[in-house]
Design goal:
Length: about 210
């Protein structure tokens, strides 16, 4: 079973609380999402493989640890997942970026795919699927389904806010996927929104509501 990591770092908790506030502006919300994603990436990449490489400093030749290749892909779930990408690329700038477009049917709350574009060598990469919210889990499960159908295997899911219901659904569907969460919330309401949550992340990122 994949592991679930809930961050307890004070900076992540503080910035996540600021994101939740309804009076936080679009500009500040975007910056906070970027910053929290960057802080989470620092920890989520802890297990990336290293290799010994000989380098030359101004003083001498020596051997140091460096990443064994940078075969990383970031795959945001559109549209809200885009808000996390820049923060992640600040730490792993050579990562390739794919995109998966899903929307939630307002009646069934099930995900509907409208776009999927992944790096051609996705099967060789460590893949970070990102979406600010893990609510019902339907979009996350569908996105990872699409990636696995195209050969992706080493997958991590990263989100800002998660409901217990979504975590359970994702773990059941993809027990091999580790989940990184900035904050685990109480539950879903009758409209399948996370409580206390932060509202609609896409609308708050792009000022569409």
């Amino acid at each position: 079973m994949g592991k679930v990591y809930v961050f307890d770092h004070p900076l992540i908790q503080h910035k996540t609380a600021l994101m939740r506030k309804k009076e936080t502006s679009v500009k500040d919300f975007r910056e906070l999402v970027r910053e929290v994603a960057m802080l989470m990436t620092f920890e989520a990449t802890r297990s990336l493989p290293l290799q010994s490489v000989e380098i030359e400093t101004p003083m001498c030749r020596t051997t140091m640890n460096m990443l064994r290749g940078e075969d990383i892909a970031i795959v945001p779930i559109l549209r809200a997942g885009l808000g996390m990408v820049d923060g992640m690329l600040a730490l792993i700038p050579n990562a390739k970026v794919g995109h998966i477009g899903l929307y939630r049917d307002p009646e069934t709350h099930l995900p509907v795919e409208y776009y999927c574009k992944l790096p051609s060598d996705i099967e060789k990469r460590e893949i970070f699927v990102v979406d600010p919210m893990l609510a019902t889990g339907g979009s996350a499960v569908a996105a990872i389904d699409f990636i696995k159908q195209r050969g992706g295997r080493k997958i991590i899911f990263m989100c800002l806010i998660a409901a217990p219901e979504g975590i359970e659904v994702l773990q059941k569907a993809h027990p091999d996927v580790d989940i990184f969460i900035a904050a685990k919330d109480e539950n879903l309401n009758d409209h399948a929104y996370i409580v206390p949550g932060l509202g609609d992340a896409g609308d708050r990122l792009y000022g569409t509501k």
